[in-house]
Write a structure and sequence with these properties.
The protein has 293 residues and is α+β, with helices and mostly antiparallel strands. The protein has three domains: 91 residues, 3-Layer(aba) Sandwich (Rossmann fold); 128 residues, ATP-grasp fold, B domain (D-amino Acid Aminotransferase, Chain A, domain 1, 2-Layer Sandwich), CATH 3.30.470; 60 residues, ATP-grasp fold, A domain (Dna Ligase, domain 1), CATH 3.30.1490. The protein contains nine helices and 16 strands. Strands 14-13-12-15-16 form a five-stranded antiparallel sheet, sandwiched between helices. Strand 12 and strand 13 form a beta hairpin. It is globular and about 60 Å long. The protein starts with a strand and ends with a helix.
Length: 293
């Protein structure tokens, strides 16, 4: 099988492992930046190239990132990946689902429509509206609409301090996404789902003096038994988002579990160590099964 691995501006260790795993399974593999892919559509059909390598007849594209760029560049890349799907290349994760999972606003209303538990989330582009809601929320978090690894998220209890941040964000044309802070025991749960199965799970504990549990923010993963009710939310959330695989983050609130995020391009280095698994191998196997059954 021919497999294309696409990533952002730099190949992360996760992307490198996908390439290595696909090669180890005997597949022909090419990897590169999504921005490096070109395409042609003509009366005779569709063609695609990664740099100067034609990849038109590839079976699978493992999509890890659209990469950084302008609105126009990202629009082309999204259309490019959708073009690949139309042309018969199986994209994992699918383009629309991947884009929706990157969008924290879209994730919330998609999960809610299927009755899954979510935190209260407010979105606006008006600073005065955000300020008014901030006063009512009390303890809340600002989240960038597009971000990963917890970068850019800010926790506030003072609406006036938050308003100063809103002014800066508005200057850079950033929408405002405010989320009520969910009380928790200083940890959340990562459930890693591939297809219909939970292939691994772990608790993520925050670093001392911090409120974020992201490993990239100093948190650490521990292989501890996760309650079945939490594990069951993983495949439900993944299917609701239309993803082939995902990392689902769940928090234990006083009122029950709450889904914080469904990541369509999750990292797995810490989970590999904590749960003693090889995620890249499992993703490649599942991608191949989607094409060949």
């Amino acid at each position: 099988m021919k497999i294309l691995v696409l990533y952002g501006s730099v190949a992360s260790r996760n992307s490198e492992e996908l390439v290595e795993a696909a090669k180890n399974h005997g597949h022909e593999v090419v990897g590169g930046q999504t921005a490096e892919v070109s395409s042609e559509v003509s009366p005779s059909g569709s063609r695609f190239w990664l740099r100067d390598i034609e990849v038109t007849d590839f079976d699978v594209c493992l999509l890890r990132s659209f990469g950084p760029g302008s609105c126009e560049q990202l629009t082309r890349r999204i259309s490019l990946i959708e073009h690949m799907e139309v042309a018969g290349i199986r994209v994992v994760n699918p383009c629309y689902a991947f884009r929706r999972a990157r969008d924290k606003y879209a994730t919330q209303y998609t999960l809610k429509a299927e009755g899954l538990p979510i935190p209260t989330t407010y979105t606006t582009e008006g600073m005065s509206d955000a300020y008014r809601v901030s006063e009512g929320y009390g303890d809340f978090i600002y989240k960038p609409i597009l971000s990963s690894m917890g970068k850019g998220s800010m926790r506030f209890t003072d609406p006036d301090l938050a308003y100063n941040a809103y002014k800066m964000l508005d200057r850079y044309s950033q929408p405002l996404i405010l989320q009520k802070y969910v009380p928790n025991p200083g940890r959340d749960i990562r459930v890693f789902v591939i297809g219909d199965s939970v292939i691994g799970s772990a608790y993520k504990y925050k670093a001392e003096g911090k409120w974020k549990t992201n490993v990239a923010q100093g948190g650490h993963m521990v292989d501890e038994r996760v309650p079945e009710e939490m594990l069951e939310l993983g495949p439900r959330a993944t299917h609701t988002m239309g993803l082939d695989y995902s990392g689902v983050d769940i928090i234990e609130s006083p009122d029950g579990p709450v889904i914080l995020e469904v990541n369509g391009s999750p990292g797995w280095q810490a989970l590999n160590l904590a749960a003693n698994i090889k995620v890249a191998d499992e993703i490649v196997r599942h991608a191949v099964s989607l094409v060949h059954g």
